[in-house]
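Input for the complex:
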Amino acid sequence: MFSIGQLSSKVGVKVPTIRYYESIGLIDPPHRSEGNQRRYEPEVLDRLTFIRHARDLGLSIDAIKDLLILNANPDMPCDEAHLIANQHLKDLARKITQLQQLSLELTRITQNCDSDTVGHCKVLEALGDHSTCKSDH
Amino acid sequence: MFSIGQLSSKVGVKVPTIRYYESIGLIDPPHRSEGNQRRYEPEVLDRLTFIRHARDLGLSIDAIKDLLILNANPDMPCDEAHLIANQHLKDLARKITQLQQLSLELTRITQNCDSDTVGHCKVLEALGDHSTCKSDH
DNA sequence: TGTAATTGCTCTAGTGACTAGAGGTTCAAG
DNA sequence: CTTGAACCTCTAGTCACTAGAGCAATTACA
Ligand SMILES: [Zn+2]
Ligand SMILES: [Zn+2]
Ligand SMILES: [Zn+2]
Ligand SMILES: [Zn+2]
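Predicted:
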């Protein structure tokens, strides 16, 4: 039996976050002490660890909800889990590509100014003007 | 004199977003028609175009506020503008690196399963267990 | 001039995934 | 038995919008 603070330090999820996860139905409400404090059984450790790691990998709460449902049914096919992971991988790739484009554009922009004052600053000019950009964004 | 809808289509910023920008003080409240509708002078075009492009490049509203203040003082040194842009560039680089790590990790994870059922799914196992990961996240 | 379609107005609430704070209660150690 | 840490609930704030309700003004066309 853990208090919420002990659970928190064991899995590395902050106390308010654990309560938040309970409030959105991601983890079950635990039993309470006589004084109404949360008391967790050891089983919650696995679930919360899973949630923590999946969040660290960037998966959304909704995706994690689905994965947890799957996890609870060992006889189901695991295609759907693969699908969710692959979808997230695609999302990541898209995001990375876009950020790289922005980075390139901004690198170009920031290397352009040989003025000292705002009036002729090429950086400010380029920030306000898409026409000199090489890519869409 | 533009209506908010005309301004919106000219600069590619949605009508509610323009009103939102006004509400947070990013653009000045324009004059109103007799019927209380917003009527914009042409000067707002530049400002809103600047905002739009800077947002597209990923800059925060706060950063844009600072840049707009600079923009209004042509005699000031432009170091601060460079600083803001460079800071954003750093943020971008950090974000990209992190997403690339996640992507690598997830690629590894998703290529690991030769099971058909959830019970022995390596993907689900790896999602819940950081100990097999090659990087921090 | 009549009327209908479009555009505009304000206000509130919702998004995602938490985080911060107020104001109070319970627990564990000494 | 006292003290201080940890816990409780509830509300509101974060960021940059977006959606919707319910109504008013404008514009286009007949
Ligand atoms: Zn400059
Ligand atoms: Zn551009
Ligand atoms: Zn599998
Ligand atoms: Zn990991």
